[in-house]
Amino acid sequence: MKIIVKNITYIDDGINIPIQLPEELIRSPLFVEIKKRNDLSSTCIFRKEIVPTSTDFILEISSSDFVSAEILNQNEVWDINIKTKTSQLRLLKSNNEMNTRYVKNEWNDFYWKPYWTKDNYLAIFIKYVKSKSPFSIKDIYISNQLYIKVEMNEIHSQDEFFFLFNNDLFKETYRINHNIYFEIPINEFTLDKAGRFLAKGMLVTTTKANQTKIILTSEDVQFNIQNEKFNIILSIENGTLNLELTQKKKGITVIGCCATRDNFNSHFNNDYKKEYEFIQLQNQASVISLVSNPISYNSNEINKIDQWVAGQLISELNKSFFENQKYGENDYIILDFFSDVYFGVIKIDDAFITNNHWALHKTDLYQNWSSLPTYRLDTDFDIYFELWKRSIHELFKRITIAFPSSKVIVHKARFTDKYIKEDGSIVLFDNAKKVPKYNLLWSILDNYVEENFDTIPISISEEKLISTENHKWGKFNVHYDLPYYHEFLRKLRELSLS
After folding, report:
1. What is the pLDDT tens value at each position of the chain, 498 positions in all?
2. Which of 443-450's residues contact partners 24+ apart within 8 Å by CB, and which partners?
């Protein structure tokens, strides 16, 4: 069955629609319903019972009969249906050309009009009334510049429009009908020490008679947008236009040890937070452990270590590092392989845990596992390296899924065999003879990753590879003197700019 729309006529607050009905619907009660498109609720904007007495019938729709919906967007489509006892029918356009226009009277600050869908069914289109404000910011977009789309209520071909931010004027780039487009060269703005640019703004116009006018608006609106360099907020509040640019910080996640993490500690690099935001750390975990199966444990046995260390151990036991990641947060994933070189792993059934004698060994949990098989890179090279190679491929697969837009940096840290004493003298560590072997093994792991994966290396010059008794965590082979961390951050900044 088809219901054909023959014509549409307009009254001040509604429309009259002559329709042609199938004969089988004559003298049957029908219900005309208007509902928001794609709305899961059963609320009708309009509902009316009709009982046609002939195939020709005039359907009257008046906004005075509309029921306010809880939420209305600035632009919406409402579908018109006629319900019978057994079916729901749409109103189909006849072959006659029928242009539509807005109904004269507004409804709840909305214009509305009949609207033909792409399938030639009749619907209703509503649009928020813009006449209360001379202009409306419709959209913004950012690439190398900030693009602003403004819709004007009235526009004269001779007028020229400008945005004024602080003391700088930015002329319109082009216009289409009532829409005016601006390009704002944000890369030319001077940022303050906090990496921000703040400006009060206004829209101004120059008329044919060279008169300059400020155009005010009563509309409150806020846009938030970002690119690789900036977070941008453009807002209008109480008639005031505000533009705020904040230099975007690079998100950092570390899978490694303090040799990498300490570069993002204000004690070692006091200004790193101006450019970088530290997101997450998986500390001192072997790659083999990180991607193996979760391990069951009694939480009461994770004791005798501080809360932060316990949290890192629990994360490693649960293998939960990748579970709570958010796309786009991390610009750089920085890896180091200290834990594979220094600790090795314990095999627990079909899983592995890092054999960390600084953390795990102190807990009661370790007593359950102290007699289980262990593997070290220095003493079980062939077995360990095969396990590690399989694991590093799995790690990069997970990184690709969890961090699809992130760059992976390999921090080619190394053990140092010497440290600076408080009196300024330089002495060797007690384990200095082991350092060359540790560093050789570390190089093998780094080289394998460089040859097989798309990564960016960072290595620090040899003269800065030295520890100090004055280190925040005490002297150790990967607790470096301050110049090491400063060079690391400088090299990372060079990468960020490239």
Report:
1. 899 999 999 999 999 999 999 999 999 999 999 998 877 666 789 999 999 999 999 999 999 999 865 556 667 899 999 999 899 999 999 977 888 999 999 887 788 999 999 999 999 999 876 555 778 899 999 988 999 999 987 787 788 999 999 889 999 999 998 899 999 999 888 888 778 899 999 999 887 777 788 887 767 889 999 887 888 999 988 778 999 998 888 899 999 999 999 999 999 999 999 889 999 999 999 999 999 999 999 999 999 999 999 999 999 999 999 887 765 678 999 999 999 999 999 999 999 999 999 999 999 999 999 999 999 999 999 999 999 999 999 999 999 998 998 999 999 999 999 999 999 999 999 999 999 999 999 999 999 999 999 999 999 999 999 999 999 999 999 999 999 999 999 999 998 777
2. 443/412, 444/385, 445/337, 445/340, 445/341, 445/377, 445/388, 445/392, 446/337, 446/410, 446/412, 448/389, 448/392, 449/335, 449/392, 449/410, 450/410
CA distance 397 to 399: 5
Burial class (CB in 10 A: 0-12, 13-18, 19+), 343: buried
- The tokens describing 327, both together, are 């796309």
Question: What six digits make up the tokens of 340?
Answer: 């594979």
Alpha-carbon span 341 to 364, nearest angstrom: 25
Please state, in angstroms and as integers, the Cα–Cα distance from residue 137 to each residue in 149, 209, 326, 427, following that order. 6, 26, 30, 67
Q: Annotate 46-83 with b (16+ C-beta within 10 A) or e (fewer).
A: bebebebeeeebebebbbeebeebeeeeeebebbbbbe
Q: Note the Cα 19 to chain centre separation in Å.
A: 50
Cα gap 221→149, rounded to integer Å: 13
Closest CA to 123 of 160, 92, 83: 92
Q: How far apart are the first and last CA of the chain?
A: 66
Spell out the SS3 assignment of 150-214: EEECCCCCCCEEEEEECCEEEEEEEEECCEEEEEECHHHCCCCCCCEEEEEEEEEEECCCCCEEE
Closest CA to 261 of 495, 494, 472: 472
Locus of tokens 């470096």: 480
Chain-centroid distance of CA 338 in Å reads: 31
Q: Distance between CA 388 and CA 382 in Å, rounded? A: 10
Tell me which long-range contacts 97-104 makes (C-beta under 8 A, separation of at least 24): 98/5, 98/7, 98/8, 100/8, 101/10, 102/127, 103/10, 103/11, 103/12, 103/13, 103/14, 103/15, 103/63, 104/10, 104/12, 104/13
**CB distance 429 to 478 below 8 Å:** no
